[in-house]
Structure formats: structure tokens, C-alpha cells
Amino acid sequence: MLKILFATTASVATMAIIPPAWAQVAEPAADQSSAGIDEIVVTAQRKAESAQKAAIAIDAVTGDTLIQQGISKAEDITKSVPAITVTNGGGSNTSIFIRGVGNITSSSYNDPAVTPSYDGVVLGRAAGAFGSAFYDLARVEVLKGPQGILYGRNATGGAVNIIPARPELGKNGAGFNVSLGNYDAVSADGYLNLATSDNSALRVAATRQVSDGYNRDGSDDLKRTGLRGQFLIEPSDAISLRIGADWTKIGGVGPGGSYIGSYTPGPSGYTFTPSGFDTSEGFNTDAANAYRQTLVGAPGFGFLDAMNQQQSVDYTYWGVNAELNWKTDIGTFTLVPAFRKSMGDSFFYGPAFNTAYSAETDKQYSLEARLAGSVGMVDYVLGGFYFNERIDAQTEYNQEFVLPMQSYTHKTKSWAAFGQLTANISDRFRLVGGARYTRDKKSMDGIINNFITFCGGLPPANITPPASFAAGCAAPGALPRYPNLLTTGDTVNWLVSNGWIAAGSTDQANPQVFPLLNGVGTILKTYNPVVDSGTYSRITWKASAEFDLGPQNLLYATVETGYRAGGFQLAEGKSSYDPEFITAYTVGSKNRFFDNRVQLNVEGFYWKYKDQQITYFTVDTSGTLINSNENAGKSTIKGFDVDAIVKATPTTTLNAKVQYLKATYDDLHLYTASPRDNIACPFTLTGASAGGAPVKDFNCSGKPLLYSPKWTVNLSAEQVVPLGRSLELVGNVATAWRDDQWGAFEYLDFEHIRAYWQTDLNLTLRAADGGWSLGAFLYNLENKRRIATPQRSPIGMAIARYTAPQTYGVRFSANF
Looking at residue 31, what is its pLDDT? Predict the structure, then answer.
């Protein structure tokens, strides 16, 4: 990899010193700009600059490109950014990975490893921005690698900045986009920009998006409404104030999936039996429920019931924020206060349980202050940041014979002081150094209770197949199947009123055992309160060098560290986990050649990752199933990224983005016990036991990180055909290759996402002045649904959520 990087860097350096007769690197004249490659202005380094001048690993996607590529939700951003993967596994949780760095977010209190931000405000949770913000955008910026200096909260994997289009002074205008497609899809968004005075402007935008579900049970649908308003005032050349507010409502059935098959334990391991379903069956069709009722669930070992309720999503996200910029003699002072709130509930089926339910309210306050200026040869950014978040939630995960219930309040307070200095050693050479001190305080006040129905008595007197069948546990009506309850008191009352346990039984604040009155089984109620708090702190730093080979040729090298705080969770014996750390080395070059008609950007990276926070299903000391956050040892991530754009003619543009990635766990051990031990890694016995079963240490060292395909390739071509003086016909084809990758930590065969191509087509007729356009689109030409999120259910099934099927339609846009 280093040889390839050095060779590429050398070739770039050679091209940069080619005589001007062969490579004109001067800025294009105004009348030539339409023939060259457009600039994208980014603010990733807390200043407005061309993406080509920013000595950082960044992909920026403009709002126009988002519309053309049909990117209306976060999962689709990989169409333009090969390094990123975004998944939604159910409820309101969103998981983000960049180059294998990320975490499967199954609980709302898990901090993201890739930090999302909306309009300059760092968010504690990803779902709000990624579920609501994709309309009337200026751009989306994806920063690759740790962001430990200039961003509000530390991120080990990167950051995703969603930046809405801002009010424009002195301009009255409006615009809209409307599209109609298969699956009864209707998408409409629009904006209005009003010059309210000579020095103020108002911008209002709204969206409505609906679509039928891609699955036969109605899941993977879309029902979203959003509204955003911003007011900008600049009373003088020195002061500007922008105030914004946004509101989003998300409803519908929500994310879904399908059964791939089931695993049956035996003396020689687990046997897999395919379900026979295609990728669009869903979990709640007649056929899916009939299949479900052929499967046996532990530890009651009776046949499962059909889903007891249709899944649904009902969430509201809203927030207010402001940005004050004040130019002073010592620099520009920036103040960004913000408040955000999300609230709602959802019923969902993940992971192949019966019905899970989550009701949650999140509130966050944040304040960031920065001072940016110059003293002599040194440019500086100094600042401070405060973040305060509270999450109140109640959840249940109905597994029919097991009913876990959680109720908790999770709080986070974080503050940081940071600074970055740039020494302009010469007109062409710069040295950059930065540091940030972060202090995070977290607390958890909650409880997890499980009602667990065993066939027979409590372990080790419980009865397992095939003896459980002889004991009558699989007979109809022999064991209770829990309804969707949220409190232990309601659950005990339900068991009493339905004649399962003795009359007069009451709920007590301790573990309890309830024999079934029919003598077939026993119910254990666990009692696991978690009241804990802790403080984490870290100094992260950055050092880099930048050199301009020419006016449009940049070389840079950076080393930067990142940190993500530890935290607390509802898991007996594993109530806390430690921080994670990363050190990233980067060498890169950004270039424009041939009169601004060729762009070639190259980046090589080498990351060392320590104590990664991972989430997987395991058991606690009593043998009870838990979804645990744990630290995974060490990993190494290395590779290179090549981004090329060629403006072959004034009307022909070619794009290619290629990433090579080798991301490997140097040290990864997973611990669990039967019947939760279906993991495809060699194991040894630890000598401990959980619920009477021996605990196994699965050594998965040498396995790839999740969502880290070895090769990713994005290719596209656009051709503009003039039709007279006022019309243009634009054709665009874009295709993407994703190499093999893994989607879950058990490394089972179905969790291996096979390599694939996916191709999108666009054909648009538009006014040459950009006033309107009418187009047709077809996404996923191959008409294949690929696995997006595989998951081995703890109750024995292999399931997956899939990417979108082939979609097509028409789109009309206008600006006036």
C-alpha cells in the first residue's frame, strides 16, 4: 500500500511541475468556468474554503447532486461516498460506519463513533438528523478519520455534517422538486427565500415524502414531513446573526426485514435450514407467521406464536439553533447555541423477537464558542464547548418465553476546550498543530427486569429438547406467551389474572420465582437495577504539514488522535464499558490539472484502533440474554483512496472514486455460553459458567471489521446535449461496486455480504439557464435487493434487512 501511495504521490508531483504549455494550473478565467470542474466550498475546518484547498480527508456532496442521485435519506449517501455505511436496524436507532469504524447502535445511550451534526450543531444521537434533514441542503460533508479537535464531541471514525441551504440577502426566490415513482412514492420539497430588508433575509423550506413498503408486510415504507425556517440579519459588515428552527414528523410502519433461515443446536454444532423466503417477505405476512410457528423458542421450548402486533413508527424531532459571527480586531468570534428534542415511540420486530416497543424522549442543550483570527504568520482557532443530554426511555423486547423490560434515565454532560494553530512558514508551506481537552460525565439510573419461562424448573433443573417435548412444553397452551407489557407489576397481574401463577402473587423489588400452576414450567423474574456514574477525560491532538506544489496542487501529511468516552448500560455484571482510542496517519494530495478540467485526489491512511466499543448478544452471569457493549481489543485499518474527475469536454464529465481498505482485528474475543454460542470462531473454555452452561472465549482475531469492504468503486458519467439555445438533455449513469464485507460479529455465512454492483440511471430535460428540469430516473438497474443489516437472532433465526429494490419515476424541478 505504501509503495502505491508513494508512486502516486510522485506522479502527482511530476504532473504539478509540467510546463504550463501542457498543464495550465492557473485559476480559470470567468468565461472558462463553465468548461472546468466546479468548486465545492466546505466549512469542515470552521472556515469557508474550497474542498480542494482543505488539507483533510473529506467528501462533499452538493444539494443538487443529492437530488439527482435520489439521496433523500442517510442510507443512500454511500452512492457518493464509498467510505461510509449507514444502517437502520429498527426503531429510531441509526448506525454509521466509516472504513469499518462504527458501532451497531441497539440502544439510544450508545454514543456514535461517527459524529453527526446538523447546521453546525453536534448531535448526541444520529437518528434525528439522518431521519429528517435531507431536503433543501447546501451540501453534506463526510470527514474520514478521527475528529478530535474542531468538533463539539470527539469522534473516532469521522463526522457527517448536514448543512442546509442558508438565507440569501437581497434575493427573492423560490423553488421546488416533485417526484412520482413506483411503490406509490411521492416526494415534494420546496423553499422560499425572501429579502425582508436590505440586510436581512428569511428562508423557509418544507418536505413531504411517502412511499409504500418494499416488503409484503408493509415495512420499509416512508412517511415523513418536515419544516425548516431560518432568519439571517447582518446589521453591519462586522455582525451577522442567523436563527433557525426545524420540525420533522416520521410515521409509517418503519424498517423491516425477512427470515433467511434458522439454526438448530446439535451435538456437533448448529445446523442451518433455509426459510425459502425471498428478500421482500417481511416478518408479518401470513407466510412469515406460519413459518415462525414451526420454530421452537428457548428456554420454554414451545413453538412460537405469530407476531402479536403490526409494527409502527411515530417520532417527532425538532430543534432551534443560532449562529452569531462578530468580526473584531483580534478575529471573528462565533457563538452557536442550540436545543434539540426528539420524542415518540415505535413497535418493531428486531431481531426476530415478537414485538419490541420503545418509548423515548431525548433532550440536548449545547453551546459552542470560537475565536478565529491571525497574528503575524499564525492563524488560530480557539474555542470551548458544552453539551448536556438527557434520555428517558422505556423499552421491552418480547421474546414470548422471555420478556425483558428496561426503564432508565441516561445523562451526559461534556465540556471541552480546544485550539488549532496554523504557522504559515512560507507562501507555500504550513505547519498545523491542535489539541483538545474533553471531559465527559455520564450517569445511568435504570433497571432491567426479565420474566423468563423455563420448561421444568430453574437451571440446572430446566428441561431442554428433546426431553422438553415429552414434558409437554411444546403442547398448545402449555406455556404463557407474554403480551407487550412495560412494567413488572402489570406482568405479574397478567400472569395471575390468566391463571398461570398463584392468586395473590405480587410484584416485589427483588428476584422472584413463580411456578406455573399447570406444573409444566417455572418463571424467573430477575431484578437488575443499575445506578452508576463516572467521568472520562482525554487530551486529543493533531499535527500536520501542508505544501502547495502549485496553485492547484496540495500535498499534506497528518497524524491525529481520537477518543470516545466509555459509558454505562443495563446489563448485570457488565454495567460499564471503557473509552476507545484511535491514532490515524494520513498522507494525501489534491490536484487540478489541464486548465481545471482534471481533478486527481489521492489519500493513504493507516489507523491504529484500541479498545473499540462493540455491541453483541451474550449472556450475563446468570445466563440471561443481554445485548452488551464491550471493548474489543485492537485493530489495524489501512488503505488508500483515489478520487478523479475528468471534464473530457465542456459537456462530458467522468467521475471515479476508488477505495482500497484492509481493516483487521488484531485482538477480538467474544464471550458467551450455550444456547447463545453460535459464533464462527475457534473457542476455549474460560472455566466460568453462566446459567449452568460453560462460558466460551471465542477468538475472532484476524477477522475483518464490520462494514469494511476491501474494494469500493463509484463510477459515473454525465453527458449534456444542447438542444438549441435554451434547452439541454442530460444523461447520467452511475454504478457502484461493493466488495465482500461482514455485517455482524458472529461471522456466520449469512452475515457475509457478497460483493455486488448497483447502477442508477437519470435522463433530464432542462432549461439551459437552470430555471426548470423534467427528468426520469431508474435506481438499482440490476433489480437486486442486497443484505444491508444481517443479524443472528438470539432465539435461533437468521434474519436481514435489505437495500431498496428497483425504483423508478419522474421528477420535476423549478427555480424562480
Answer: 36
Q: Are strands 158-164 and 114-118 parallel, antiparallel or unpaired?
A: parallel
Of 64-68, 471-475, 676-680, which range is least confident?
64-68
Please check whether residue 98 is in contact with residue 319, taking contact to mean a CB–CB distance below 8 angstroms: no
Q: Residues, the chain, total? A: 816
pLDDT at 362 over 80: yes
Locus of grid cell 424541478: 813
CA distance 349 to 355: 5
Q: What b-and-e string marks burial along 323-335, b requiring 16 or more CB atoms within 10 Å of the CB?
A: bebeeeeebbbbe
- Taking residues 25-34, what's their average pLDDT? 37
Residues 742 and 721: their CA atoms lie apart, in Å, by: 42
Among 50, 41, 55, 18, smallest CA distance to 594 is for: 18
DSSP secondary structure, 229-295, as one string = EEEEEEEETTEEEEEEEEEEEE-SS----EEEEEEEEETTEEEEEE----TT--SSSHHHHHHHTTS
Secondary structure of residue 508 in the 3-state scheme: coil
In the chain the first and final C-alpha atoms are separated, in Å, by 50
Closest-CA residue to 156 (of 535, 608, 704, 708): 608
Eight-class DSSP state of 307: P
- Around 640, how many Cα atoms within 13 Å sit in the side-chain half-sphere? 18
Residue 5 has pLDDT above 50, yes or no: no
Please give the Cα distance from 123 to 126 (Å, whole number). Answer: 7
Arithmetic mean of pLDDT, 574-581? 90
The rounded distance, in Å, linking the Cα atoms of 703 and 488 is 41
Q: For 241-262, what is each residue's pLDDT tens digit?
A: 999 999 999 999 999 999 999 9
Angle at 43 between CA 42 and CA 46, to 5 degrees: 160
Residues 52, 599 contacting (CB under 8 angstroms): yes
In sequence order, which residues have a C-beta less than 8 Å from that of residue 234 and are 6 or more positions away?
169, 199, 200, 240, 241
Tens-digit pLDDT profile for residues 585-627 = 999 999 999 999 999 999 999 999 999 998 888 877 767 777 7
Tell me the average pLDDT across 718-740. 95
Q: What is the mean pLDDT of residues 357-366?
A: 94
As a whole number, the mean pLDDT across the chain is: 90
Helix (H) or strand (E) holding 430, with range, is strand 429-455
What is the pTM assigned to this prediction? 0.90
461 Cβ contact list (under 8 Å, min separation 6): none
Show the CA angle centred on residue 747, arms to residues 746 and 750, nearest 5°. 105
Cell matching residue 318: 425538532
CA distance 441 to 436: 16
The DSSP bridge partners found for residue 455 are 521
Give 173's contacts (C-beta < 8 A, 6+ positions apart). Answer: 192, 193, 815, 816
Alpha-carbon distance of 88 to 444, in angstroms, equals 25
Q: How many Å apart are CA 233 and CA 321, to the nearest integer?
A: 15
**pLDDT tens, residue by residue, 738-788:** 999 999 999 999 999 999 999 999 999 999 988 999 999 999 999 999 999
Closest by CA position to 139, among listed 233, 44, 210? 44
Phi and psi torsions of 281, nearest 5°: -70, -45
| Sequential DSSP letters for 40-108 | -EE-TTSS-EETTT--S-EEEEEHHHHHHTT--SGGGGGGT-TTEEEEEEETTEEEEEETTEE----ST
| CA-closest candidate to residue 17, choices 655, 591, 422 | 591
Closest CA to 187 of 134, 252, 238, 232: 134
Give the pLDDT band (50/70/90) at residue 553: very high
Closest CA to 13 of 737, 702, 555: 555
